[in-house]
């Protein structure tokens, strides 16, 4: 039993180890080939004198830690608040109950991480402005980039510096959804549609807020992401060596993929405290009158098979 319990964490842990090794390897390769090129400060908020070390700290330490911090704060603060809002707004129209769920056997990283990462990128783009770049970038870095007349590099590096902030905000928001889903609290529109020709629907409260947040992390984020890449290519072709362009593009594409793995510590913690976090939200639900337990079964396949058998007999 202990081994089976640990088995579901083994793959995520290995993937996160790959994530850490990847960034250390990239930093080592760049420092080996260009030992003096990047020997200047990137941001006044990170206490080093090497842009490579600062970026390494951002991706290997600051982003994962920020995700954990956002997860803990968001889950315990926002989940009860969101449940209260949903119950107060829709409580007179819906019926609420609690579904008991068995323990999961695996952690689906892509399913849970895809939209949080898109939302994180979206928030980062929203925060980016010339005024913000002047604050978060060091004067040394700005003087070097200004001399090269490459504004797109300022934007991209600024995005990297802002990612820990947007990532923390995103995990703060999405952890509340995971807490709500862990609680198993469902709602049904049975009362609302009993006298009208609308279908009977059962959804989770966490799923409702998940759909709401996904609207801010749609395809438009990916379009903006690739427009930034196009801007980068144009600038590099004019002023910078092709080798730097290739390296930057590879890193830029890999950042999106690797950020999915940056959520792993938060996902592991979510699974470790799944029962405790679910009970935490349920206690607030009880204060709102959500006490009934329900067992939901989907029997469409069986009904279809029975109908087919009757038709064949006739």
N- to C-terminal distance? 51 Å
Structural class designation: mainly alpha
What is the count of helical runs? 13
Residue runs with pLDDT of under 50 for 5 or more positions: none
From the spread of the alpha carbons, the general shape counts as elongated
Indicate the radius of gyration in whole angstroms.
24 Å
Write down the secondary-structure element order: HHEHHHHEHEHHHHHEH
Instruction: Summarize the biggest pleated sheet.
Output: 4 strands, mixed
Overall pLDDT confidence: 80
Major sheet: arrangement of strands: 3-2-1-4
Overall number of strands? 4
Bin the strand percentage.
Answer: under 5%
Residue share in helix = over 70%
How many separate structural domains? 1
Give a verbal description of the structure:
- By secondary structure, the protein is mainly alpha-helical.
- It has one domain.
- It has 13 helices and four strands.
- It has helices at 2-33, 51-90, 109-127, 130-136, 139-148, 151-183, 190-193, 205-214, 219-239, 242-262, 264-272, 274-287, 300-313, and strands at residues 95-99, 185-188, 202-204, 293-294.
- Strands 3-2-1-4 form a four-stranded mixed β-sheet.
- Helix 3 crosses helix 9 (219-239), helix 3 (109-127) packs across helix 10 (242-262) and helix 6 packs antiparallel against helix 8.
- The longest helix has 40 residues, at 51-90.
- It is elongated, with a radius of gyration of 24 Å.
- The protein starts with a helix and ends with a helix.
- The mean pLDDT is 80.
């Amino acid at each position: 039993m202990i081994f089976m319990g640990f088995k579901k964490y083994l793959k995520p842990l290995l993937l996160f180890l790959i994530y850490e090794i990847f960034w250390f390897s990239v930093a080592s390769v760049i420092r080996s080939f260009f030992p003096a090129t990047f020997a200047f400060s990137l941001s006044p908020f990170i206490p080093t004198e090497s842009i490579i070390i600062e970026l390494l700290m951002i991706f290997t330490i600051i982003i994962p830690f920020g995700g954990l911090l956002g997860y803990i704060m968001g889950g315990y603060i926002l989940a009860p608040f969101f449940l209260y809002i949903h119950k107060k707004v829709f409580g007179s129209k819906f019926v609420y109950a609690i579904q008991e769920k068995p323990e999961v056997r695996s952690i689906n990283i892509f399913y849970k991480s895809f939209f949080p990462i898109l939302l994180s990128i979206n928030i980062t783009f929203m925060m980016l402005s010339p005024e913000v770049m002047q604050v978060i970038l060091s004067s040394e870095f700005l003087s070097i980039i200004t001399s090269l007349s490459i504004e797109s590099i300022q934007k991209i590096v600024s995005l990297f510096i802002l990612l820990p902030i947007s990532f923390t905000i995103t995990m703060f928001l999405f952890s509340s959804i995971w807490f709500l889903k862990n609680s198993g609290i469902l709602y049904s529109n049975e009362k609302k549609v009993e006298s009208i020709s609308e279908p009977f629907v059962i959804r989770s409260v966490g799923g409702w807020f998940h759909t709401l947040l996904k609207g801010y992390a749609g395809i438009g984020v990916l379009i903006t992401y690739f427009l930034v890449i196009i801007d980068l290519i144009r600038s590099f072709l004019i002023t910078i060596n092709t080798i730097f362009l290739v390296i930057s593009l590879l890193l830029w594409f890999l950042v999106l993929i690797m950020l999915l793995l940056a959520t792993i510590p938060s996902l592991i913690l979510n699974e470790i405290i799944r029962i405790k976090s679910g009970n935490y939200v349920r206690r607030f639900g009880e204060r709102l009158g959500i006490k009934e337990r329900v067992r939901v079964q989907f029997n469409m396949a069986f009904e279809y098979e029975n109908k087919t058998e009757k038709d064949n007999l006739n």
